[in-house]
Design brief:
Blueprint (H helix, E strand, L loop, with lengths): L2 H22 L2 H22 L5 H17 L4 H26 L5 H19 L6 H27 L3 H25 L6 H32 L1
Helix pairs in contact: 1-2, 1-8, 2-3, 2-8, 3-4, 4-6, 5-6, 6-7, 7-8
Amino acid sequence: MNKVKLLTIILFFVSLVEITAEYFKILPVIYVFKPSLSIIILLLYWYSSNKRDYLFFLTIGTSLVTNLLFIPNHLNLIFIALVVFVIHRIITIYYILKVKKIKDYVPIILASIPFMLLFFYIFFDTELVSRKIYYILIIHNILISLLGGIAISDYIMNNSTFSYWLLICVISFVTLHFIIFLEKFYIDLLVFRPIAMSLNIFAYFAFYKFIIEIEKSETLNLKS
C-alpha cells in the first residue's frame, strides 16, 4: 500500500473519531484530533504533488490555526479566529484564482450575488451579533459569497474534473458557514457540531483533490 492510500485511510478513521468527539464534546480528544486532520491533509498533498505549492501549505496551515482557536468557544478567541479566518479565506481565493488563471471576473460577481443576498439577509435579521465581530462577519459573508461565485461560474463554464471538486469543496464551505452562523446566533443544536466538522473535513479533502487534479492537468499540458 502506498503512502497516499494509507494516509487517506488514516484520515477517514481520524475523521470518525473527531466527529464523534464533537458530538459528545470531548475536548481533550478534539484538541488532539482536530489539528491532526489538517496535518494529514498536508501530508497527503506532500506525497501526491510534484509541485508542492507553498500556497497549499499556507491555506491549510491558517485553517489549522483557525480550528484550534475556535475550540474553546471564548469570545476573545473567536474574534482572533475570525481575523485569522479572513486571512485564510483571502489566501484561498487568491490561490484558486491563481491556479485557475481566471481573467473574466464578471461571471464570478454575478454568481456571487445569490450567496450575498442569502447570507446578508440572515446576518441583518439577527441582533445578537457582537459589535466586536460585526464588521469581521460582513467581510466573511463577502468572501464566502465570492468563493461560491468562483465555484459556480467555473463549473458552468468549464465542467471539468477539477471544477467538480472545487464545486463540492465550496458547497461544503457554504453549508458549513450557514450552520455555524445558525449555531452561534440562532439555535444551538447538539447535531450541528458533528455536521459542521463533517463538512469541514469533506471541504478540505475536496480542496486537496481539486489542487491535485489541476496540477495533473498542468503537467499533461506541459508534456503535450
